[in-house]
Design brief:
The complex is a heterodimer. Chain A is α+β, with helices and mostly antiparallel strands. In chain A, about 20% of the residues lie in helices and about 35% in strands. The chains are: A alpha+beta, B alpha/beta.
Chain lengths: ~120, ~525
């Protein structure tokens, strides 16, 4: 199992050809209290970098991009009733969707945890 | 003590010594229940006759059979309720209202007097045109001022607000493209744009593409040229932009847009900064809305409807919507449908009637009482005031961009780093100081943005008081005193509201409590 990060602050936890996707705790903190999450339809396919979901906080609405290409195989329905999960557990129960990887080679373009930490440190 | 030696505090007992009141009110500060909590079933402020016995229902079984659930209140109860609520409200008539991007300037009383003249105030849109010649002449005169100020030949007066004007402008652009048989799909919008720009483009079916900003807060011209193509219908650009900066490359942007066959929509929300100094028509703008409720001092922010006339270039003017006023002999006529057009090609009708007549009167009153030189002075003073604020605060707060700025000063939250105080906390503390907060967290290109637009209405003394307050708050935050911020506002009728709760679990409908409390009388 590996966790990869994008420059748009999504994470992807990869296990057996599938990736669970969410936003990083840093992104959740920047957004402030999340009040609404719009999730994609299961079965939809995205290319890496496509807008896949929307997250709305008291401050702003932001897009969540698909970190890798593939088909949506599950979404986190719990976010609909309880968007606060994104703030409480951005890298755990606050995941957004699971995507079936179309091309594992794309993972090489993403950052690992150490590189992402450096990236965030550079932003502050 | 003030300068006359009078004590400036009323000598009121300190809050701890003040008694709890039995009513829950504090003198003039009245605790106000909901209208539903005031009323009682069966009370009505109007005395309506009972319907005749012989009436036969034609509703076919669709009659309402339960209570309608309206609050039962008398006229004095309604009047008191809304007057009390209005007393809790902040308004431009109460103090500095530095809400960036909104141009909360003074609304001159002369405007109100003019708008109440019976020939303007008591007419109806369906009245015969021969009986409202004066009103039509006023619209024609307003159109003349707007086209002269902007150096644009055409104008559509009917849009009812800024975003409505954007819609009007983009539909005119689409109509002009379609008339040439040119189908285009993309609209380019800078990332610092007002949210209404991409929303308008998306609402009429265009794909929105973002143009990145440069490090100095302006449109990246090179990136813009790269994004331009034969599928680009328009660029939507605000100038001065939402960072309070003049887009220096605006002429190059207009030329590049036109070379690519697209149109240039300018968001005129910030016209107050350049009125009388820069004519958008000279810059190559094809369409621009003008917020009469910002630049031309008609009431807004709860005080009145908006009005967003759109000025149009020669290429777009023929597509202006119906209805419009036209000179006819000694008088004026209203072109209401396409059979009356003479060479124009209106895209249709945007609203039922002619637009916000009351705002037309107020705006023209403002223009004529200021004159061309006065309007120019207003713009210059607005820019001067904003720069005074920027210069007086940038040593303690963090200015996002090096000045000079236009009519608004933009700060970010770097100066609050490590204090534990956020932009939101800072804004709430301003409420305790008796100020309406500035615009916050917008524009999005700046972290924790604070956008301050003082307008030309403030005197130097008023700005100095505001600056002293902002400096005081900044020093407190940096000194590590968080209490004044975290719990703010302390002195508002309600403490800090739970915005998250309101968004996550909104209560959208009043429900009667199980055992209604005895109404306080």
């Amino acid at each position: 199992m590996t966790v990869k990060y994008t420059e748009d602050h999504e994470w992807a936890r990869v296990e057996g050809g599938e990736a669970t996707v969410g936003i990083s705790p840093y992104a959740a903190e920047q957004l402030g209290d999340v009040v609404y999450v719009e999730l994609p339809e299961v079965g939809k396919t995205f290319k890496a970098g496509d807008e896949a979901a929307t997250v709305e906080s008291v401050k702003a609405a932001s897009e969540v991009y698909a970190p890798v290409s593939g088909e949506i195989i599950a979404v986190n329905d719990a976010l609909e009733g309880n968007p606060a999960l994104v703030n409480e557990s951005a890298d755990g129960d606050g995941w957004f969707f699971k995507i079936k990887l179309a091309d594992e080679g794309e993972l090489a373009k993403l950052m690992n945890e150490a590189a992402y930490k450096d990236f965030v440190a550079g932003l502050e | 003590m003030n300068r006359q030696g009078r004590p400036t505090s009323a000598g009121a007992p300190s809050p701890s010594a003040a008694p709890e009141t039995f009513s829950g009110n504090k003198g003039l500060e009245q605790d106000e229940p909901l209208l539903f909590e005031i009323g009682r079933d069966g009370i009505c402020g109007v005395d309506l006759p009972a319907p005749d016995k012989g009436i036969v229902s034609r509703l076919g079984g669709l009659e309402r059979d339960g209570a309608i659930g309206l609050p039962g209140v008398s006229e004095p109860e309604v009047v008191r309720h809304f007057v009390r609520l209005s007393q809790k409200n902040y308004a431009i008539d109460l103090g500095v209202y530095p809400l960036g991007s909104c141009t909360m300037k003074h609304n001159p009383r002369l405007n109100e007097k003019m708008a109440r003249l019976p020939g303007f105030g008591d007419i109806h849109p369906l009245q015969p045109v021969s009986t409202v010649q004066g009103a039509l002449e006023l619209m024609e005169e307003l159109a003349h001022w707007l086209t002269t100020i902007t150096s644009m030949p055409g104008v559509a007066l009917s849009p009812k607000a800024g975003a409505h004007g954007e819609l009007c402008g983009l539909i005119a652009i689409r109509a002009a493209l379609e008339a040439k048989g040119d189908k285009r799909s993309r609209v380019l919008v800078p990332e610092s744009a007002h949210g209404t720009n991409p929303a308008t483009a998306a609402a009429i079916g265009y794909e929105v593409d973002e143009i990145p900003a440069t490090a100095d807060g302006r449109v990246d011209l090179a990136a813009y040229r790269e994004k331009l193509g034969p599928d680009v219908a328009a660029i939507m650009l605000t100038n001065p932009n939402t960072c309070g900066l003049f887009e220096r490359d605006i002429i190059e942007i207009a030329e590049a847009t036109h070379d690519a066959g697209g149109y240039f929509y300018c968001d005129g929300a910030n016209l107050n900064a350049i009125m009388g100094r820069v004519r958008p028509g000279d810059l190559g703008v094809d369409a621009m809305h003008i917020n009469l409720h910002k630049t031309f001092s008609t009431p807004h922010g709860g005080g009145g409807p908006g009005a967003g006339p759109v000025v149009l270039s020669e290429a777009l003017a023929p597509f202006a919507p119906l209805p419009f006023v036209r000179r006819a002999g000694d008088g004026f006529e209203l072109v209401e449908d396409e059979s009356q057009t003479k060479g124009e090609n209106p895209f249709g009708r945007l609203v039922a009637f002619h637009g916000q007549m009351g705002m037309f009167v107020r705006a023209l009153s403002y223009m004529m009482s200021h004159g061309g030189d006065g309007l120019r002075q207003a713009a210059e003073d607005a820019v001067l005031n904003a720069n005074y604020i920027l210069a007086s605060l940038k040593d303690v707060m963090s200015a996002s961009f090096e000045g000079p700025c236009m009519h608004e000063a933009l700060f970010d939250d770097k100066f609050l780093d490590g204090t534990g105080v956020t932009t939101l906390d800072f804004a709430k503390a301003m409420i305790d100081e008796g100020y309406h907060p500035m615009t916050m967290y917008f524009p999005l290109v700046v972290h924790g943005a604070m956008l301050i637009e003082p307008t030309e209405s403030e005197s130097k003394e008023s700005l100095d008081r505001f600056i002293r307050t902002m400096r005081g708050l900044t020093e407190q935050a940096k000194a590590g005193d968080k209490t004044r911020f975290e719990g703010a506002p302390y002195f508002a009728p309600r403490a800090r509201l739970d915005e998250t709760g309101a968004a996550r679990k909104p209560v959208l409908r009043y429900t009667q409590p199980q055992q209604p409390a005895e109404a306080a009388e």
